[in-house]
Design goal:
1066 residues, mainly alpha, 10-stranded mixed sheet, two-stranded antiparallel sheet, 48 helices, 62% helix, HEPN_DZIP3, TPR-like_helical_dom_sf, metal-binding
């Protein structure tokens, strides 16, 4: 080590120590002046400070620094703590003092990056000149400065520092060598010896604690590893490895949220580090496992295949059957051999077998090989190759020629959905996760149905929808995922339906669920408390013999109140509907994107309004940006030439004008993201070399593009905060961060950002709308109405948010029940819709749908369009109807073949179903109360259903699909039917003692063995729509003439979604 350069570094360190002493003295003097009492270095002083003037500082610093502040011992406060105190409190707001403090921290941060502890003479002179001026301002005399630089005591300090640094470097190197030999215990001892040396700089200590943390982690001492990682971070908050060690320690302690947060921080320091991304992906995957308990893990697959293989091996003539299967599908032999090796934990041989099957284009082999690549079993972890295999499998047909599922397809789709949801094998995208979950559900994946239900239950990446979540959980149970049962209990508990929660928890407990056993006592207590709270409602229900099993407590109270006050029922119902739905309203919603906007139409309108002109310019810039991107994307390297700059400027201009126009096409979104990130890195380097105004403007455009393209990324909040720190007067960074704060329900933080934008640009139209929406979300209805009024005063009449502003003001008026105001705003919104650009019609607004309830019930002239959205969105409904229609077609083909006059394909049921001797005391039951995972007869219950498909008689039974009053669906098979029953689509039946049976295909159905247990109601739905179920349908299929429809939309949907062509015959 060059002694002269090292001495220079030591002198600067000593000057920084002196500066810290000066700030300590300044703090003590200011404190005594303000409080008329001396600071006593006691916990009492520390708590007084952190609870009052220093509260903001306390919230800002790290956990260890919080401890130092609480202790009140300012001898342990470092330069960063004093900096926070003087910048975040009003102890000293002198502008010159603040400027010197800023320069001091800049020097300190610069010195921290000299990892080699060398400062050249030229650098030293620059630092010395700056520090001398700062220290003189802080009260240090010239004589004191001379003493620090030249005195014998300083030389002695430098010598000690020099010797200790040299010793610590030697010990650190010895420790590093031991780590390479995997002798972690001895390495930790070496790092400890180095740490105990006095006078080491913070940077050195940070590295040593980080290294020891790594050793402790390898030794399984995770708590000690965590403490060392925290110390490393405190000593150097910009040290990358400190955050990596924190993430590793938190992962091992199963605190995955904190692990992900620290990996995110590490990535913010090194955006292109794939190793950190992989560790974060692993943390996200483990977090998902912890929350869902349904991952396609190797262990789970082993258990499943062991049961399946054992079942096959118990069959007679197994050897002949196996030989036949292998001759028909040679790849299956390799797949099953892979399963055998996998189940015996010989992953290397299993991977080789799966590879052979994959080479033969086996979906199951390719899927299992991808899974091994994700988990690193038998092969190296390879996310890109795993992704490639999963995408390839997802292109296979999900069902074979016999309509049997092709193993590997829905599993691959589920894995892709998990990857996008967690951000593991691909960049995180809840939007694409939903797409893949829905695709897997359409191929009968119970795990995907369960996971998508969780998203709807929690409002995680989708609008919260309790009914949709319930349907999906029930669908998951029908498709065989037992985890859905405990989740369904959680749903009922959170939505206030304690009766259902109790029943399903009991079913889950019988299946051996530990979760069900743990919460049984709590649910019982909740039931007792709820019944005590509504004892008068229970008495009222008993007097009138009213059912309540399928109702929430709130609905039961509402029913009683409506009965006693029928004149208020309409308004009460509207308020109840709004109470249930309004939580799902979000302040911003992305709509259609890019080329879907007609440039010619906008060109005709652009001179008529400011908004149309902004739209025109936004679309024009977007189209030119995309065109430029496809020309530069072909290059092998990324350079900051004119084309790249034009691409960024055009895209940023689009985002600044109307960001929703620039929604990227899914197939190229990832490539554009990566390209923008690379251009941003180039721009950051260019800015570091030059403060040219044009370069700074381009850098801001790069950052805007990166922020918008990564809106839902976990790192985006930190990235935007960094942008705002660098460019405090750029309103776009503040607006984007404000929207993100709203997305994570931090509305106060969002409001601060929007207020700051208002200071920068008083009449920014979009910001005024965001501010109003934020105030509404915070419950400040009056302020929100005022903000909406201000927005309307400056917005063009065709601005896309004008109708929404009126509808939102109407919702705000609900607080004081101002019906006239509600109706006025509703009508204003409708009138504003007429001035909208055609792209935004029909106008999509949750606020409008909620608000429309009030004018409809209180005599308004406008009616709300009724759309059975939830019913038609049920994936189980679609699956059962299509399967029934396919069965109807196939049976017809078989019966038309003269060689097959009769088909007998059934199995003896494990239970016996019959009509009761007495019908007294029968209780109603609904499909969402019946456990579809096990065979059982529901004695003493009656199930009321409506047929939603045309029944067909296969000579053994009459089969059809039916729904109950909650729109839940199930298959029904009626056996032994000698008597004449009028069964047709739209018929209403009651089944007494229904038998829920697991059929031969492994899926549930309602079986009726005794026709006397079926009552057909004389009241049926006449001319029932074959799609949505409405009666009095006026339209018919032009080809078969039998299918009825209430609208053209239903006919199109029935043809496309429900495969009407399967049964459409003249």
């Amino acid at each position: 080590m060059n002694s002269a350069e090292f001495n220079n570094w030591c002198r600067i360190e000593l000057l920084l120590v002196k500066a810290t002493e000066c700030l300590k003295k300044a703090f003590e003097q200011t404190w005594q002046h303000k409080h008329k009492v001396a600071w006593s270095n006691s916990p009492e002083c520390g708590q007084h400070f952190t609870n009052n003037a220093g509260l903001t500082v306390y919230r800002h610093v790290g956990k260890i620094q919080k401890g130092y502040l609480e202790a009140g011992d300012i001898g342990k406060w470092d330069l960063s703590i004093f900096n926070a105190i003087f910048t975040m409190t009003d102890l000293n707001k002198d502008k010159v003092f603040q400027a010197n403090l800023k320069r001091l921290m800049s020097i300190r941060n610069s010195i921290a990056h000299h990892s080699d502890k060398k400062i050249s003479t030229q650098e030293y002179q620059q630092y010395w000149t700056q520090l001398k001026g700062i220290l003189l301002f802080l009260g240090v005399t010239d004589e004191e400065l001379d003493d620090i630089i030249h005195s014998q005591s300083s030389d002695s300090k430098m010598y000690i520092m020099s010797e200790n640094v040299r010793k610590s470097n030697e010990l650190k190197q010895e420790g590093n060598n031991l780590v390479k030999k995997q002798e972690f215990r001895m390495a930790a001892t070496k790092y400890t010896d180095a740490i105990t040396l006095p006078g080491l700089p913070d940077g050195d200590l940070s590295v040593l604690h980080s290294n020891r943390s790594f050793c402790y982690h390898k030794l399984g001492k995770y708590a000690q590893a965590l403490e060392d990682a925290k110390l490393s971070k405190r000593l150097n908050p910009e040290y990358l490895k400190a955050y990596i060690r924190l993430g590793m320690a938190y992962m091992s302690l199963e605190k995955y949220d904190k692990a992900i947060k620290n990996f995110d921080r590490a990535l913010s320091l090194d955006m292109n580090n794939d190793e950190i991304r992989q560790m974060r992906s692993e943390a996200r995957k483990l977090k998902g496992l912890q929350e869902r308990d349904n991952d396609q893990s190797i262990k789970d697959l082993s258990l499943k295949s062991l049961k399946r293989m054992q079942k096959f091996k118990d069959m007679e003539n197994w050897d002949e059957i196996q030989k036949m299967l292998f001759s028909e599908n040679p790849a299956l032999e390799h797949v099953w051999a892979g399963h055998e090796y996998r189940d015996n934990q010989n992953y290397r041989m299993a991977a080789e077998c799966y590879k052979k099957a994959a080479d033969m284009r086996s979906a199951e082999g390719m899927y299992n090989l991808a899974l091994f690549m994700i988990h690193g079993h038998g092969v190296s972890k390879d996310y890109p190759q795993a992704l490639k295999l999963l995408l390839e499998v997802s292109k296979f047909d999900a069902f074979d020629k016999h309509n049997a599922p092709v193993v590997g397809v829905k599993e691959a789709e589920h894995s892709l959905a998990l990857g996008y949801y967690e951000g593991t094998i691909v960049e995180k995208s809840t939007e694409l996760a939903v797409v893949w979950y829905e695709k897997a559900i359409s191929h009968r994946s119970g795990m995907s149905a369960n996971n998508l239900a969780l998203m709807y239950m929690n409002g995680d990446g989708v609008v919260k929808n309790v009914k949709q979540a319930e349907q999906l959980f029930l669908c998951a149970l029908n498709y065989g995922d037992p985890n859905a049962m405990d989740n369904l209990v959680t749903l009922y508990l959170t939505s206030g339906n304690i009766n259902k929660a109790e029943k399903w928890n009991e079913k889950s407990k019988k299946l051996g669920s530990d979760i069900a056993r743990q919460r049984e006592k709590a649910i019982t207590q909740m039931t007792l408390e709820a019944n005590a709270d509504i004892s008068d409602v229970i008495e009222w229900e008993k007097e009138r013999n009213l059912p309540f099993e399928n109702m929430t407590i709130h609905e039961r109270i509402f029913r009683k109140h409506s009965h006693k006050h029928p004149d208020q029922s309409g308004v009460l119902e509207a308020l109840e509907s709004i109470r249930n739905k309004s939580d799902s309203i979000s302040p911003t919603r992305l709509t259609k994107g890019g080329y879907k906007y007609d440039l010619e139409l906008l060109a005709k309108r652009k001179d008529k309004s400011e908004f149309s002109n902004r739209m025109y310019l936004a679309v024009l810039n977007y189209m030119e940006a995309i065109h430029t991107f496809f020309s530069i994307a072909r290059r092998s390297i990324v350079v900051l030439d004119n084309d790249s700059r034009s691409f960024i400027r055009r895209l940023a201009m689009c985002y600044k004008l109307e960001h929703f126009v620039g929604t990227m096409p899914i197939n190229s979104r990832e490539d554009i993201r990566k390209h923008v990130l690379l251009l941003l890195s180039c721009s950051d380097r260019a800015v570091a070399l030059s403060d040219n105004i044009d370069e700074l403007a381009f850098n801001q455009d790069c950052r805007i593009c990166h922020a918008i393209l990564n809106m839902k990324s976990d790192e985006n909040m930190d990235f935007l905060s960094e942008c705002i720190k660098k460019y405090p007067n750029n309103k776009f960074f503040l607006e984007i961060r404000g929207c993100l704060y709203n997305f994570i329900n931090k509305h106060e933080s969002a409001l601060r950002d929007f207020n700051r934008v208002e200071e920068i640009s008083k009449d920014d139209v979009d910001n005024l709308y965001h501010k109003a929406a934020t105030l509404k979300l915070m419950g400040r209805k009056k302020q929100a109405k005022d903000a909406y009024t201000k927005f309307l005063s400056v917005a063009s009449e065709d601005h896309r948010k004008v109708p929404e502003a009126y509808y939102a003001m109407g919702l705000c008026s609900m607080v004081n029940g101002d019906t006239a105001s509600i109706m006025r705003h509703y009508e204003q919104g409708l009138n504003a819709e007429e001035k909208q650009i055609p792209f935004f019609l029909p106008y999509d607004s949750t606020s409008k749908d909620l608000l429309a309830l009030v004018p409809q019930i209180t005599g308004g002239t406008r009616k709300v369009k009724e759309t059975p959205v939830v019913k038609l969105a049920d994936p189980l409904r679609k699956d059962l109807i299509v399967e029934h229609r396919r069965g109807t077609r196939d049976f017809g083909k078989i019966m038309s073949d003269t060689k097959h006059s009769k088909v007998n394909v059934t199995a003896k049921p494990s239970k016996s179903q019959s009509a009761p001797l007495s019908w007294v005391g029968l209780k109603p039951i609904f499909l969402n109360e019946i456990d579809p995972t096990s065979d059982h007869v529901l004695d003493g219950f009656v199930l009321e259903l409506t047929l939603i498909t045309v029944p067909f008689n296969n000579s053994m039974s009459i089969s059809f699909v039916a729904e109950d009053s909650n729109s839940d669906v199930q298959r029904v098979s009626l056996y032994n039917c000698d008597k004449k029953l009028t069964l047709a689509i739209g018929a209403k039946i009651s089944i007494i003692n229904p038998y829920l049976r697991t059929a031969m295909d492994g899926k549930p159905l309602v079986r009726i063995d005794d026709p006397n247990s079926v009552i057909v109601s004389p009241h049926h739905i006449v001319d029932m729509c074959h799609c949505c179920g409405k009666g009095q349908s006026k339209f018919s299929c032009s080809k078969c003439k039998r299918a009825k429809y209430c609208s053209k939309e239903c006919q199109v949907s029935d043809w496309k979604e429900y495969s009407h062509k399967l049964i459409c015959m003249p």
